[in-house]
Amino acid sequence: MHDFSVLILPGAYASSVAVTLDLLSAAAALAPRLQTPRPNWRVLSPDGGSVTLGNGLRIDTHALPKRARNDASTWVVPGLGVDQPAQLFARLTQADAQHAIARLRRHAARGGNVAASCSAVFLLQAAGLLQGRRATTSWWLAAELQRIAPDCKVDADRMVCCDGPVSTAGAAFAQSDLMLQLLRLRFGGALADVVAKMLLLDGRQAQAPFVIPSMLAGGNELVARLTRRIESSLPRPPSLSELASEFAMSPRTLARHVRAATGRTALALIQSVRLNRARRLIESSRMSIEQVAAQVGYEDATALRRLMRKATGAAPSGFRRNQHPAPTR
User: What is the pLDDT of residues 39-57, one digit of tens each?
Assistant: First the structure.
């Protein structure tokens, strides 16, 4: 019996595939030291044979079995190697993707667990597996996932979401976080922790520290202009009412446009711009946290610390690690 079935589609993100297999290999090597069962897995693709990944590397796979009796493995799908909605939806219509979607649906219907990261989360959505669940995906694709899956709670700030038999993760390298969580669920925390330590992997809880506000626009010109306007106004960002007046619309209409394009509230967009600027200043300058707070419009460092911890799960000083030392006072 297999613990994991790694389902790879042609063009998949090579690093996402590699980290999946490397973590499983590390877990299998380390398990005897902990007197824990070794994980075992198989590598599958819709048609089998040698599959070309997104960067030209090739990997040998077995074809999806025609019958899936007594399959208790967790099916894991690395990112598809596409990151724009139009390309993604075109990819999902192709025969191999449709085959994968049908088999994921069948596996879940038999009580199987499924997991995916990045753009592969859209395979789970197409299979109807996100309905009524909480899920995440690459933060710049989250608004699109929420648009096509209104009955799913898309939590773009999370690195990994586990909701019953469905586990999802953020952008491509969140595959490492996903695999650590799947190892933890199946084999316990001790094995997952020693794998993480051996491979020097930090347990990341949130995507929020990696969000680039300008990329949230996703091609939406209004949101791009709003982001530039907020950036240029710091440390005194305009209020929602002021922005609405400048862009000749009501606050409610402005908020609706921002929500449709980014999946976030207009106030969250303003805060994201401020916190992103704060993080850049902390990483690249010798300013004290108090000085950074003033530069992005917070009255005191306490407010900045509280908001950054809430948004990113880390204190501002954490972003200065291995950077310039803070000045003495």
Answer: 999 999 999 999 999 989 9
